[in-house]
Every structure is written in structure tokens, then in C-alpha cells.
């Protein structure tokens, strides 16, 4: 599992930038020209223009989807367009979608939750939390991920939204190691009538939930975000390996206390002075 791009790789990407784009002054007050930073290096660059925080590489087509004209205008205002525009051009020039690597597949298979965004007919986005046992979200192949859709509050907002617009965005967060993976894709709902074998494959017999359907996403692009501002959190399962030795030690100390109390009781005579 990759944990971050090396500083030398980050520097190589920055120095390969078009000099004219990097040296173009940001059209904002001096107070808004930020330091150039990366996740592992907060040193100032010669340009004095803020550069993106790196953690993992952006996939080829992510920029062509995410970096719209309005987004590019804001990037230009804050001085990050020099780097990100190259990413957008790369994606536009190369047709197709971005295949998942083993890093993305392994990462998703370890998650026990994620957030899914869809858009309804009113134009409003809807973000839903999806949870389950670790591994319920998984890669089906290099371009497809999926999960068992468990019965919830019966609103079916995401499911309904997908009938009108299959575009979705997904964010999977690893709070322990402060990592997050963002995915763009097209979703489709699979019912038991459509493919009973698929739903059976996604079901977990040890997890007490009703599988109403499966959801498959054809991945278009993805982006690994840097760990900035992710608060470290631990689940009970995360802490158990660390706590288990402490629980065992506490149990041993309690047993020892009982034994010592019994020994002390045999040594100390009763209060009425009679020996036992």
C-alpha cells in the first residue's frame, strides 16, 4: 500500500511545470498568496505561489471531470492552475477511463464505510453514508467496484436518483492512517431478479442485514487526497489488538488479588479471637 509520494517525486513534478504558468502572479492580495506546501514539506518555493498538497497521484481523467471552467477560474485566482491544468489536459487528450491498481483495490476492500453522492431531479445533491463489515465494498474488476446495498430507512433516495442520473462520486476514508480516496463513476442497481448470483457473492452470512440489491460502479477516474485535516479516529476493532494484552493483564491482576485476599484471610484471626 502506498503511503505517499516521495519528496523527490513531488519536486520533480513541480519543476516540470511550465515556467510561465508557475511564475504568473496570482491576481489576489498578498495576504492570499499562500506558502507552497506539500504534505511532508512546508518549505517556501521560489515562486511564492501555493502548490497542491500531494499524497497519492491523481488518475489521468480525474482533472477532465472535476476541473470545469468555473473550477479553473478559482484555481487561477489562488495560483494552483499551473499544476492542475496539466492534469486536465492529460485527461482530455487520452480517451477512456482509469483502471484501478492493486493499491485502490486493497484499500477499498479494507473499508467498512464510505460516502456516496448522487444528484436528484430537483438538481440537489444527496450524500449518503454506507456502512457494513470490512470488505463489503470491493473491486469486481479493474474498472468496476460494487457493494451489497443493505436495507435502511426505506427512503431509497440514492436508488431513485440513480434511475435518472447514474453519475456518482464516492469518498472512502481511512481515519486511522488519515487517507482518503475519491472516485467518479457511473452506477447501476442490480436486483436479485437481475443477477441472483451476484447478490449472493456480495452477501456476508456473518453480517445481520437484509441485502435488497447490489450496486456496481463503473469507475471513470479517482484521486488520492492528502491527509491534511483528517482527524484520526479508531473503531473498537482497531483498538482491540492493543487493548487485548491490557485486558489479559487486568484479568491476571484481579485473579492475583483474589488469591492474596484468600491467603490474608487465613493468616488473620477472626475478630472474636477464635482461631479457625
Protein architecture, described:
With 276 residues, the chain is α+β, with helices and mostly antiparallel strands. It has 2 domains: 87 residues, no CATH class; 124 residues, Electron Transport, Fmn-binding Protein, Chain A (Pnp Oxidase, Chain A, Roll). Helices cover 35% and strands 22% of the residues. A 7-stranded antiparallel beta sheet has the order 2-1-5-6-7-4-3. A hairpin with a 4-residue loop joins strand 5 and strand 6. Helix 4 runs antiparallel to helix 5.
Low-confidence stretches: 1-51
Helix content: 25-40%
| Quaternary structure classification | single chain
Report the β-strand fraction as a percent range.
15-25%
Total of helices: 9
CATH architectural category of the largest domain: Roll
CATH class of the largest domain: Mainly Beta
Specify the overall morphology: elongated
Amino acid at each position: 500500500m502506498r503511503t505517499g509520494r516521495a519528496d523527490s517525486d513531488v519536486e520533480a513534478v513541480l519543476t516540470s511545470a511550465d515556467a510561465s504558468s508557475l511564475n504568473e502572479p496570482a491576481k489576489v492580495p498578498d495576504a492570499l498568496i499562500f506558502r507552497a506546501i506539500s504534505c511532508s514539506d512546508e518549505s517556501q518555493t521560489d515562486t511564492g505561489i501555493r502548490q497542491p498538497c500531494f499524497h497519492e497521484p491523481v488518475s489521468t481523467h480525474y482533472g477532465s471531470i472535476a476541473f470545469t471552467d468555473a473550477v479553473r477560474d478559482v484555481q487561477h485566482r489562488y495560483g494552483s492552475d499551473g499544476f492542475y491544468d496539466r492534469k486536465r489536459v492529460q485527461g482530455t487528450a487520452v480517451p477512456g477511463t482509469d483502471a484501478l491498481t492493486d493499491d485502490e483495490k486493497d484499500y477499498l476492500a479494507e473499508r467498512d464505510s464510505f460516502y456516496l453522492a448522487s444528484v436528484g431531479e430537483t438538481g440537489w445533491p444527496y450524500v449518503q453514508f454506507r456502512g457494513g463489515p470490512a470488505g463489503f465494498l470491493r473491486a469486481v474488476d479493474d474498472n468496476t467496484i460494487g457493494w451489497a446495498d443493505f436495507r435502511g430507512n426505506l427512503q431509497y433516495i440514492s436508488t431513485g436518483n440513480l434511475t435518472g442520473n447514474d453519475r456518482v462520486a464516492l469518498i472512502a476514508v481511512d481515519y486511522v492512517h488519515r487517507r482518503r480516496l475519491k472516485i467518479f463513476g457511473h452506477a447501476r442497481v442490480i436486483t436479485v431478479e437481475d443477477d441472483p448470483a451476484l447478490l449472493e457473492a456480495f452477501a456476508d452470512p456473518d453480517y445481520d442485514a437484509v441485502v435488497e440489491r447490489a450496486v456496481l460502479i463503473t469507475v471513470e477516474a479517482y484521486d488520492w487526497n492528502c491527509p491534511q485535516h483528517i482527524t484520526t479516529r479508531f473503531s473498537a476493532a482497531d483498538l482491540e489488538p492493543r487493548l487485548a494484552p491490557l485486558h489479559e493483564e487486568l484479568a491476571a491482576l484481579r485473579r492475583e488479588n483474589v488469591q492474596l485476599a484468600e491467603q490474608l484471610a487465613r493468616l488473620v484471626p477472626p475478630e472474636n479471637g477464635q482461631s479457625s
